[in-house]
Design brief:
Keywords: ATP-binding, Membrane, Nucleotide-binding, Transmembrane, Transmembrane helix, Transport. By secondary structure, the protein is an alpha/beta fold. The chain is 57% helix and 8% strand. Helix 13 links the parallel strand 6 and strand 7.
């Protein structure tokens, strides 16, 4: 009602008003409500289209022409509105004031309206946004070493219960810069195994894999990006932090720290992650980014180094069709800049299928097709396999790879074979098969490819590449190239470890657990009296509990360290992001500030509530003793976790070990049999308990003495320091052994 009433009032007022409208060369224009609404829609549409065009980076002259045409039309519309409607707007200010006041909004005074608000729409804003987007988009177009990938007769075997089983049998193919090669096949057909071998993550049993006609070298690791099927990311890091740490570790030393951070921001804008850059990655129990955003972060981790080869293992799994299409379009854009992209795909939609340049179809470890994606359907049609109904080409090919001939025309050769088998079955009164078996279909497809296509493709693979010797020398270099030196790796990993684990170590649940335990202990031992034998034994029990509690707590925290980070460690070490020694030292030392925060709160509450010796020196010595116990127990947990790398096994072994150390701690049994008395020297509970007694009671009363006399405490301190170093050396050697076995 307000809109229609205002329009009628505007028309009447404009009819009575003269001035500039009558003297203008243009005819007087009367705007109706529909005209105003239409013009508003045009203006908003023009802005949206301009913004969309700039976001795309202005990919084509056609889009730019359309934007300029729309902008020119908007200029004319706006000029008409400003010139012919100037008097109309002034005359209708009262009406506008009524309308806006009615809706709760008061318009600004007329003299405060800036000329910029009445300026016609210009392409300058669009050009600025497009220029910024072009600067961001230029990252993928940076020059990179082109790598031509060839693989011929690749085979892979595994031993199953002592019997060798062939996973891949004679796979051949190639991929060139600027191409996206997709590997399709049913589950268990060997797609991931082949991708791992091409990416240098696994060794082929037989066959040849070459990069620019040269074998795989260590220097090639820094030119390869590998996105695993599982999104291996730190849960509590944000998107920006994840990509920034990857840039700091992986980019070359020639770049400054600020340049590396800028590269990370370029990747964020390039992948469209700017809206979630400050959001945690998240996981099973932590809310974070969506599945598509998480996958783009994984891709960003790899393309941040501007790789020549990019491998992806099922990047669209678990995503909806629209998000999957965006991921594949991103891969296509990356390939267009001269990079070689190879990906496995499970069951793509028809739109995704046609975006791949080349296709490898695997079935039961054998090659069923290799060639251009556009020629796949004509090839299978030429061998007599056609879909009988309209279906997705990818679905049709997967049905063939599975040996399923439902809704598929059966070739005459297969049909004849089925008739011959049926005749034999009739003679034996057996059940007749109306369709060929999956094994028959598989054998037919393998034979058809070998006789029709394989020879031509293998001949192409034998042809030498037109590349220079300098490019080959770059590939064959056996020298590793680290992005940072050892000290920089340590500092970056130390900071990353603090940010990642502070949420777990300083969670309210842990803080509440420690504070509640300390308050309960303080109440149970409230102002205990050590002057009586009974009170002395009570205090000794408290000291032993402190030794056991801060031996038990760190062990079961540390045993999860390496088993939980095993996938991340394997992924980052395979990419040569850092040295194992830098990771291990940073990982163990970054836990110390977090591990020592809660014991301070614990000791402050318990020490004074229980009425222990009120002396600053005794308090700080007790605190130092607890710190030594925590670091030694943490080393034991790291050693168990690194040796087993299995959470269930590590938890079981840690439970038995901690219980044994507790019983041998010198509180429950003071007269240990000689043949097992050596066990107490391995117990950090034993040495911690003796040191706490020495700090509180000097000399220690006879009633609390064990069979071994207590001297000045140097022996106990030396034993704890030896455990701190020894357990960590054992953990490091265990990780080395695992790395060597994986290699």
């Amino acid at each position: 009602w307000t809109r229609s009433w205002s329009a009628r009032w505007w028309t009447a007022t404009a009819g009575r008003s003269g001035g500039a409208s009558r003297t203008s060369c243009r005819p007087r224009t009367v705007l109706s409500t529909a005209d105003v609404a239409s013009l508003s829609r045009k203006s908003s549409f023009g802005k949206r289209s301009a913004s969309g065009g700039s976001g795309a980076g202005g990919n084509s002259h056609g889009r730019s022409h359309i934007r300029k045409s729309r902008s020119a039309q908007l200029k004319l519309d706006m000029e008409d509105l400003v010139s012919s409607g100037a008097a109309l707007s002034r005359a209708s200010s009262a009406s506008l004031g009524f309308s806006f006041t009615f809706t709760g909004f008061t318009p600004p005074p007329q003299d405060m309206m800036s000329s910029a608000e009445l300026a016609p729409f210009s392409d300058d804003d669009v050009d600025l946004e497009a220029a910024d987007t072009t600067r961001r988009k230029s990252l993928m177009a940076e020059p990179t070493l082109p790598i031509y990938l060839k693989f011929a007769e690749v085979k892979y075997r595994v031993a199953v219960k002592g019997t060798p089983r062939e996973i891949l049998s004679g796979i051949s193919g190639s991929a060139s810069p600027g191409e996206v090669l997709a590997m399709m096949g049913p589950s268990g057909s060997g797609k991931t195994t082949l991708l791992s071998m091409l990416g240098g993550r696994a060794t082929a049993a037989d066959g040849c894999i070459s990069y620019n006609d040269e074998p795989f070298g260590k220097s090639l690791k820094r030119r390869i990006g590998f996105v695993t099927q599982d999104d291996v990311l730190f849960t509590h890091l944000t998107v920006k932090e994840t990509l920034t740490y990857a840039a700091l570790l992986r980019l070359p030393r020639t770049m400054t720290r600020e340049q590396k951070k800028e590269r990370a921001m370029d990747i964020i804008y390039e992948l469209g992650l700017e809206r979630c850059q400050d959001t945690m990655i998240g996981g099973s129990f932590v809310r974070g980014v969506s599945g598509g955003e998480r996958k783009r972060v994984c891709i960003g981790n790899e393309i941040i180094i501007n790789p020549s080869l990019l491998f992806l293992d099922e990047p669209t799994s678990g995503l909806d069709s629209t998000t999957a299409l965006r991921i594949v379009q991103l891969l296509h854009d990356i390939a267009e800049t001269g990079k070689t992209v190879i990906t496995t795909i499970h069951q793509p939609s028809s739109r995704l299928f046609h975006k791949f340049d080349k296709l490898i179809l695997l079935g039961r470890g054998s090659l069923l097709y290799f060639g251009k994606t556009a020629e796949a359907m004509p090839y299978f049609s030429s061998i007599g396999c056609n879909p009988l109904i309209a279906m997705n080409p990818a679905e049709f090919l997967l049905d063939l790879a599975n040996g399923n001939t439902n809704d598929v025309s059966v070739p005459s050769e297969l049909d004849d074979k089925v008739h011959m088998e049926n005749q034999n079955l009739q003679d034996t009164n057996s059940k007749i098969n109306l369709r060929p078996s999956a094994q028959d279909v598989h054998e037919y497809l393998v034979d058809a490819y070998e006789h029709r296509v394989a020879y031509k493709e293998k001949k192409k693979l034998l042809a030498p590449l037109p590349i220079s010797d300098d490019m080959k020398a770059t590939i064959t270099s056996s020298k590793r190239e680290w992005g940072t030196n050892w000290c920089q790796q340590y500092s970056i990993l130390f900071c990353r470890g603090l940010k990642e684990r502070r949420h777990d170590y300083l969670s309210w649940m842990r803080i509440t657990q420690v504070i509640a335990t300390s308050i309960i202990l303080g109440l149970l031992w409230w102002h205990s009296d050590p002057t009586t034998p009974k009170g002395l034994q009570d205090q000794a029990g408290l000291l032993f509990f402190i030794a056991v509690f801060w031996g038990f707590f760190p062990v079961f925290t540390a045993i999860f360290t390496f088993p939980q980070e095993r996938a991340m460690l394997n992924k980052e070490r395979a990419a040569d992001m850092y040295k194992l020694s830098a990771y291990f030292l940073a990982r163990t030392t970054s836990d110390l500030p977090l591990d020592l925060f809660l014991p301070v709160i614990f000791m402050v509450i318990v020490y004074f509530m229980a009425g222990l010796k009120a002396s600053a020196m005794r308090f700080f010595l007790s605190m130092l003793t607890v710190f030594l116990s925590i670091i030694a127990a943490q080393g034991l947990g790291l050693a168990i976790g690194a040796t087993l790398l299995d959470i269930k096994k590590a938890t079981t072994l840690a439970s038995v070990t901690v219980m044994t150390f507790m019983l041998a701690g010198g509180f429950f049994v003071k007269r240990v049999p000689p043949f097992i008395s050596w066990l107490r020297y391995l117990s950090f509970n034993y040495h911690t308990y003796r040191l706490l007694l020495k700090v509180q009671y000097d000399p220690v009363p006879d009633i609390l003495m064990t069979s071994v006399p207590l001297d000045n405490g140097v022996t106990e301190v030396g034993a704890l320091v030896a455990m701190i170093i020894g357990y960590r050396v054992l953990a490091y050697l265990s990780l080395r052994r695992v790395k060597a076995s994986n290699g």
